[in-house]
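Q: I have 271 residues here and want to know how they pack in 3D. Can you give me a structure?
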Amino acid sequence: MKLSLGFSPCPNDTFIFDALVNKKIDTEGLEFDVHLEDVQTLNEWALSSKLDISKISYGVLPLLLSQYRLLNSGGALGKGVGPLLISKNKITPTLLQETVNNLTIAVPGKNTTAHLLFSLAFPNAKKKTFLVFNEIEEAVLSGKVDAGVIIHENRFTYQDKGLVKLMDLGTNWEQQLNVPIPLGGIIAHNRIGNEIAAKVDMLIRKSVEFAFSNYPELTDFIRIHAQEMSEEVMRKHIDLYVNNFSIDLGIDGRKAVDKLIEVFGMINDAR
């Protein structure tokens, strides 16, 4: 049986799925048609039910619950892993809320978790422009926007470019809600059935465990898709976003996802 599978080319995702898609583990008769895309594209595809299995931002999950089930393995969730709001200029903390409300902010996709966490921190900010995540640093540097929400490897590079952190949106989430930050999860479309979805979930778990058993080795699959990223940044990326929650959400992970769905509803009711 062949299933369509989508995830990002970022090191955390290629680390997680390498053993599965390259058959370093027994896939028990399942084949995968792999699509590597940025997470906002995957979010949009999920809204149109394009793929059988997909990585998505947890920020879009509430819109997908009637068509998909959330799997326990393969996602990114944790503490100290959230998006950052950055700018070229520092802003006094006491003036931050008022100032940001009047700035043009670049956000990595309308349906991303980053947008949800930004909206929680700055509910009255209206001047937002949505860009692919790897375009945001340059948009801030060029003056196209006043500030930006960065994720992924940009967390490790923004200071080298002279940019400053205005707020850690993940820390804000943790302080307000006292649960880990749900960034991205893996979903299975209802059309594949519960039995196949459960098998895929189990295989993803085995794939993550295989990757951890060989870490800190960086496989060719990870390197090829990391483009010009240094090995140090690749490992930082993996260390930050892949953890025990990637093996199994568990009770704490599910609680965090439930809280995100609740916050999603509150934010959208207020709009």
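Q: Anything worth noting?
A: The radius of gyration is 18 Å. The chain has a mean pLDDT of 94.
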